[in-house]
Amino acid sequence: MNLKLLLPALLLGASADAATLTLNLEGLQEAKGHVYISVAADADAFDGKGRPTAVQRVEVTGPKLTVTFPDLAPGTYAVSLFHDANGNGKLDTNFIGIPKEGYGFSNNVGERGKPKFSEAKFTLAAEGTTLDIVVF
Amino acid sequence: MDRRSLLQGMAATLLAGCVGPRVSIPAPGAPPDWGLGWRSVTVDALEPVAARVRGRFPAPLHGTLYRNGPARLERGGERVSHWFMGDGMVQAFRIGPGGLTHHGRFVQTPIHRGERVRGNEAFNPANTSVLAVGGDLLALCEAGAAYRLDPRTLETRGPKEWGPELESMPFSAHPLPERDGSYWNFGLAPYASEQGLLLLYHFDAGGRLLQWTHLPTPFPGYAHAFTQTERHLVLLLAPLLWEGERGVTWFDAEAWQPSRGTAVLLVDKADLSRVTVRELPAGFVFHFGHAWEDGDRVRAYACWYEDAQFMHTDLATTARGRAAGVKHARLAEVEIPLGEGRGRVTPTSHGAEFPVMDARFLGRRARVHFVTLEDTDASRPHGGAIGRVDVESGGVQRFDYGPGVIPEEHLFVPSGAREGQGWLVGTSLDCVRAETRVAAFDAEHLEDGPVAMAVLPRALPVGIHGTFVKA
């Protein structure tokens, strides 16, 4: 991880309006690999065309996992995640694009395919927000 | 026996009580409750009941008529938005010398059981048709995997696995029988790429995959069924475009883009990689009649709609049918040049759906189409009649089930060498008396009325397609 990139984030974290986003994940199929989580503040970032506000890679040890993002500015976000069970660093799909590994979004949308930012968006309150996310 | 009096005498007989719980019979002259056809079954299995039979089912019809259709039209306490989204329930009508019994069971898909689903299986209620192969009865739905059922008990055995790479791949509800006993099928994955993907399957009567392939489509359009000649598989791709990026699926009105016209894919059966693309005017087809190669062109019959209205009609409107402005299809002649050039569509005057042909003549020049006649009486929300249309002579034989009745697809069972010589067997829903019936006809003499009619002590929701398996 590049420390230069981390510095602005740490400064952000010191701001008075820092809020904590807590994600309770459930339904992880295998206790192996990592889950990659992205928090996006707009449609471009959500669709992979821009930079997400925050990302984390967390080891999977069981069907449930709690992950916190402690220093986000309150506002509108959408979460997307996938479970890289086999450790190849990507979400594996079959040849028609159906994921072979677990994935999920805020608001638990996306069972039928990738949702829009507007469907997955939620408001992070100043006092913090907790979301339950089912991994499909 | 006089078959006309058979029907007339039925009402009186039926008042004499039936087995099992019954909806009370309304007073004479009560209006039909068309909504009965789209009412949910609230139990997972309908236990076997015997029907009251008048007349006699001929020996060639001793066997089982299986039908599939959406029978639970709520999910999470809300009505589903479209008829095609309801959970599939397979009905079995067993016909024997002793009469007719019925039982039914929901297909245990993940969505029926309320389990978490992902990807295209989230669209698959296994609700469209059935096919008997390899000791299984397959419940078919174009969205994804076929589900294997026990043909006797209708219990779900699990998804049909054609091979490791093909798990939950789209597999249409309309496989085509080849002369050697094998079957062709296709599947559409419009979300697989910008232009969409067509899968082709060839499998044997034992349910083993012989070959499969996939190829890009000209655009991510829609097809519910396909047809064949002796040399080609013929797929019409309607300009109904699935655009995942815009969040548009086939069920959204903005998916209809008639300016693109209809694309025709002619696939060489001897080499599935050889595909010829032709163009037809914009239109929409669920089902095909006969098709064959006529010199320099493919001639095919199809139930042709001017647009994709039916895909964008909500459940309440579907239930009211023509009364709510739902347009019917017309049987149309389609000409597709094998060489260069654009194809032609010539609708006939026959409003028709659920075409069934004598399968012994598939791929060759043939004439007989058994259909539900959709334009019998415009004042009725649902056509009310079945017909036998001869596309060569233009002749139509019809049998009108009478007011308040919704006829469903009738299947042909051959008995004799002539095209269309045999028996027709099919279900209908009487929306006045709240009962489902099964009738058999001499397929060459529909006007004579049924030779046998079985009346169930229950009303089943309107289904889609079926198959007949001889005893």
TrEMBL record, chain A:
Pfam families: DUF2141. Keywords: Signal. Residues 1-18 form the signal peptide. It comes from the Bacteria. InterPro entries: DUF2141. This is DUF2141 domain-containing protein. It comes from Pyxidicoccus parkwayensis.
TrEMBL record, chain B:
PANTHER family: BETA-CAROTENE DIOXYGENASE, CAROTENOID 9,10(9',10')-CLEAVAGE DIOXYGENASE 1. It holds the Pfam family RPE65. Belongs to the carotenoid oxygenase family. Its cofactor is Fe(2+). This is Carotenoid oxygenase family protein. The keyword Membrane does not apply. Keywords: Iron, Metal-binding, Oxidoreductase. The lineage of its organism: Bacteria, Pseudomonadati, Myxococcota, Myxococcia, Myxococcales. InterPro entries: Carotenoid_Oase (IPR004294).
